[in-house]
Amino acid sequence: MNQGDFPQAEPGFLAKKTLENPDLAIIYELLQKEPELKKALVELHLMAPKRRAFYADMIASLVRANKRHRDKI
Asked: Does residue 3 sit in helix, strand or coil?
């Protein structure tokens, strides 16, 4: 993946961070494949901080539950 593959909100910001952090490249790929998730995350970003923290915790809890119960889902 090269620097030209990423949109730039601020000149060079996303590309530089993504190249330094492989997790961001994975997240970017996921957002490309799941446009509804991208919309939901944009809405999450626009929420008040306490509400955003609540939903972020819920998402993290769901992901952890999935790891614990992979054989049941």
From this structure: helix
Q: Give phi and psi for 53, each to the nearest 5.
A: -65, -40
CA neighbours closer than 13 Å in the CB half-sphere of residue 29: 7
pLDDT of the chain, 73 residues: tens digit per residue: 454 555 545 555 555 554 578 888 899 899 999 999 999 999 999 999 999 999 999 999 999 998 888 776 5
Cα–Cα distance for residue pair 43/37, rounded to 1 Å: 10
**Coil, helix or strand at residue 66:** helix
- What type of residue is 48? A
